[in-house]
Design brief:
globular, single chain, mainly beta, five-stranded antiparallel sheet
Length: 175
Amino acid sequence: MALATPGVAFADRQTTIDPVGDMWTIGTPVPSSEMDIIKFKTNYDGQTIKMRATFAQLEMAGKSQVLMAALAPNNRALVAAMNYDGLEPTWGLRELSLPNGRIAIVRRVDCTAVNGHINLARRTITMIISAECFARPSQIKTLALTRATVEGGDWRDGADYSTESPVFAGPWIHR
């Protein structure tokens, strides 16, 4: 006999294991694994979109940026951003534009329901977006992008993201 409990949400999850050392460069930086994503996990329960990236190395010693984005079937996309200037992180939420499949940040979203957390001991950065900011889509795709400035150059990495054609490359996650 099955028991159905009202109000219980069954979240759908997606975990992507990302190879160590797959960062790409802009400029001529020294090799680094700072901000190299090794795992990207998304939980979506219809109320919140929780995205967590685990890094090979997370020291937060220089300037860095982490973007975690969610895409709805209607092509609306939101990005939670963490910018670190070497002193303290700032968090924000913006809407993305997807012209010709390209990802571009266009404007700030007037929704304060975004939270972020850095856990240096576990080498994770977590971002949570209220699904209300997103009109609670039936399914989403997510991605994570990072950028770290190391000795004058930039190292970048991504999970569930294609560099050949910058698009959401992961599977649909149902609520």
